[in-house]
Amino acid sequence: MAAxxxxxxxxxxxxxxxxxxxxxRKGKELVFVVQHHFSKREHYDFRLEIxxxxxSWAVPKEPPTEAGIRRLAVSVEDHPYEYKDFEGTIPEGQxxxxxxxxxxxxxxxxxxxxxxxxxxxLLGKKLKGSYTLLLFKLPKNWLLFKNSEALD
Length: 152
Ligand code: MN
What we know:
The chain is mainly beta and about 150 residues long. Helix content is about 5%, strand content about 50%. The protein has one helix at about 5-10; strands at about 30-40, 45-50, 55-60, 70-80, 90, 100-115, 115-125, 130-135, 140-145. Strands 1-2-3-4-9-8-7-6 form an 8-stranded antiparallel barrel. Strand 5 (about 90) and strand 6 form a beta hairpin. The longest helix is centred in the N-terminal third of the chain and has 5 residues, at about 5-10. Bound molecules: manganese (II) ion. Manganese (II) ion (MN) binds near residues 39, 43, 45, 58 and 96. The site of manganese (II) ion (MN) has 6 residues, from strand 2.
């Protein structure tokens, strides 16, 4: 899958426990995951299943559980669908070396999608409800925030 070339080029699958991305996705429901990544710079990886892969953003601070907080979300390479289940330790010297823990995960609904804006309804344990991702600075700086209930 061409979408995963960037992902694969960064990694040595003989060394890292991360998935190579060979499994076809199952089911109709879309999934999202947020992984807490304790790498050199601790951050959260926010991933939405879109088009069979996980579109991914690195979020330096904890994703907001309430409206009124905006977080920088830097677009990174697509990850394979199986990555939604990945937890473990990426060995020293490998890309993203450090420990990955699933912080939240669940189904989601895609409400709106353009090149610059995504609106999703997240059905996680920590992240619940309507969220927006907004491209505010090319090429890859997005804002992630929870929408206030009054907006619908
Ligand atoms: Mn990461």
